[in-house]
Description:
The protein has helices at residues 4-14, 24-34, 43-69, 79-82, 90-105, 108-112, 120-137, 140-145, 152-167, 175-186, 190-207, 212-217, 231-238, 251-269, 272-287, 289-307, 318-338, 341-353, 356-366, 373-382, 396-408, 427-436, 445-457, 466-481, 536-559, 563-576, 581-592; strands spanning 390-393, 417-420, 489-491, 502-506, 509-513. By secondary structure, the chain is mainly alpha-helical.
Amino acid sequence: GWEDSGEIAAALRTLGIVHPTGYPLFTLMGRAFSMLPFGDMRVIVQLNLLGALLTAASVFFFYRFFRLVLSPEGLWPSARASGQPSRGGDLSDRLVVGSAALTLAFTRVFWAEATTLEVYALHLVFLSLVSCLFLKALAPSTLRREEIGAGRTWVLFAYVLGLSFTNHMMTVLLAPAFLWLYFKRAGFGRAAWNGIARAGLPFVAGLSAYLYLPLRASADPLLNWGDPSTPGAFWRHVSAHQFRSFMFSSWDVARTKFLATFAALPADFGYAPLLLAVAGLWFLWRRSRGLLLFSSLLFVACLFYEINYNFDDPNFRLQTWFAIAIWAAASLKAFFEMSSVGMRRAGLALAVAMPLFPLALNYAQEDKSQDYAAEDFARNMLESVEPGAILYSRQYGTFSGPASYLQVVEGMRPDVATMDYDLLAKPWYYRYLDRTHPGILDGLRAEVALYAEEYERHDHGAHIPLALHNQQEQLILSILWKDYPRRPVYISQATNMRSDVTPVPEGLAYRLYNTPTAPVSPIRNLLIRPVLPRDSFAVAVLRDYAQAYTNQGLYRGVVLGDTALGVRFLREALALKPGYAPALQWLAKLHAR
């Protein structure tokens, strides 16, 4: 997959430290799963399978939650309390909650977690399991039998809640809904506060999985993001300090993301289920305002977080989509209870059909069985360079992330020193480079140490001071040119690095020559399986492929004067991206010759 998938796979397999907030539980789980005897299955396929199994488990727990919350033990009033005739039954209840769970599962955001490696698959398990345990612990029958917090279910809830925080901090978004329901059921007396106090020890026990980070970091693993071996570094890592500047950035960001979230809703849910969700709000207003408030708090808390975080990640919507599924389930539940026998048959058909809408609409989008775009792009980039090269990149999402798995886990092109611009801002990354490519920092260790000291003096945020940024840029140039020409230097995209440097296209990369002459570079063959433009990364990759072929066409046809070869490359660009304007323009000029 794109972006973090490769880095996560490499960290899990080598028992390293993942990017903030560290995700220790997922790391340990992934490491254990990757060691299971799956024959000759590739590690990345095993870990993708883990994502599929976790999301499947979460569907089961969402089913259990919907079943509980739509009962008198949850927040759905009994027939006597509501004054409505009870025409539903156990079978119809199971059908309603099964339909809601599958509808949620087939939304694009949810389904995507089953087809790639990401920490959100485990977050879905905790989102559903924690909600289940919480409702069960606060069920009226449970509270009648025992004092608040004295039962095993409450202790288990607190422990699992702590574990959930060690996987993803978005768990905190459950707090408004949970706190409201807790004090509604338990009151504000001493018993309620004693219950919270009893949850403290098991919660901390679950939270203790975070100890993995300083303990493992002190052993200096190969991938040691942020090196959280000291108290200060540990806190910065688990609190995602470097990303804080993305929160509450501006009203314009909040408005744009708010509109984007609601624009994504119809296609994600397959349109028709949203109509049921809207009807569910009306039914909840009439039948269960408690459930309406509980689900609305789930919705608003997540939406508020997502729109105020200046980072485009659909996974931030998972809890919002969870709340919408509650509304759709409530609509079906109310329909069954209020309908006659004949109408309940229509309700049966509606419940069966509801998950089919997102399934049918999203299948093609989420089918990744033949999606090799991320792997192929990273492989093509690595195969574009000479042995022992330095490959400098500003493409973490499409190249550096996937390449980290291919190099660290599968041992592809270990001779190539890949250097990512964004990661080169972090002092820990220089240790990684030094271990994977001994000698690359020889003669520069004093400069690296000085940069690390200056970095420590600042706030470790996403935006570093200009002087430190310039220091980083100079350090990068020193590493690139220290061993030139003995060690060839490449960049993944053409940029103006130095005025006396000539970039020459080779495959997907550009080789840098410290000479004004134009050498004859070798032709690199690219293996490109079909790239479907389903997301921004795939669109960017198609553009990069077309640009690479176009640049090679220009170099061969214009600079070196080989018109026939130049035309061939330009046609390759158009075969990948029909209508690509630069290729069309230069093809016409070469034909005119």
